[in-house]
Amino acid sequence: MTIRTFHSQLDYVKQELLTMGNKVEEVIAEMKEAFESDNKAQMKMLIAEDSAINQLELDMHDKVTLLISKQQPVATDLRKLIVALKISSDLERVADLVVDMAKQSIRMNKHSLPLYKEQLLAMLRIAEDMITKSLEAYEKSDILMAQKIALTDDKVDTQYGDLIRELFKVEDASVEVDQITQLAFIGRYIERIADYATNISEWVVYEVNGKHFDLN
């Protein structure tokens, strides 16, 4: 394989990863819509379709490991491939968290969810935007954009903490203990999605300058 061909393969890997990222963005948007309207049928469909994103992550792993084994890249080129592996893994985990959120949401009764729906939706909208911006930072190799995402993560952490404190104070007899637990889990899954957006941003920084930074 010539250098030109190898670099075209690197570009292909990046585009495939961005395509996977777009699929994950779509899944988050669909979950947000289903959660807002309490559409359990749509949530079940999201759960059933999760294997497609799992397969994209496996395909990315196979493609990248084959390139590394055949070409034995170094320095910047090696970093690009390592980052593609790491980000694809993070995106797959984000999709898994959306599925976890769907499963918990299906178990919620019609009395408990409305009390905290807006809080959870506010968190989800921020996490969704963080994923979008982290992918944009990756596409543009934009370190400054990547670093700003960590500041947004603090906002999600704060909102999650506020939610947990409120749940511990619940005295409404219509909200059962298991429902409170499920609400806490849903909040935790959203908070973790935001964390993975920060992880992706950290990999963007590493790809560009070769240094690991903890942006959390």
Report what the structure shows.
The protein is elongated, with a radius of gyration of 19 Å. Helix 1 (3-37) runs antiparallel to helix 3 (50-71), helix 3 packs antiparallel against helix 4 (75-107) and helix 6 packs antiparallel against helix 7 (177-209). The longest helix has 35 residues, at 3-37. With 216 residues, it is mainly alpha-helical. The protein contains seven helices and no strands. The chain has helices at 3-37, 40-48, 50-71, 75-107, 113-140, 143-168, 177-209.
Profile the largest sheet: none
Strand content: under 5%
Mass-distribution shape = elongated
Cα gyration radius (Å):
19 Å
**Helix run count:** 7
Order of helices and strands: HHHHHHH
Q: For the terminal residues, how far apart are their CA atoms?
A: 40 Å
Unreliable stretches (pLDDT < 50, length at least 5) are none
Determine the fraction of residues in helical runs and give it as a percent range: over 70%
Number of strands: 0
Mean pLDDT: 90
Structural class: mainly alpha
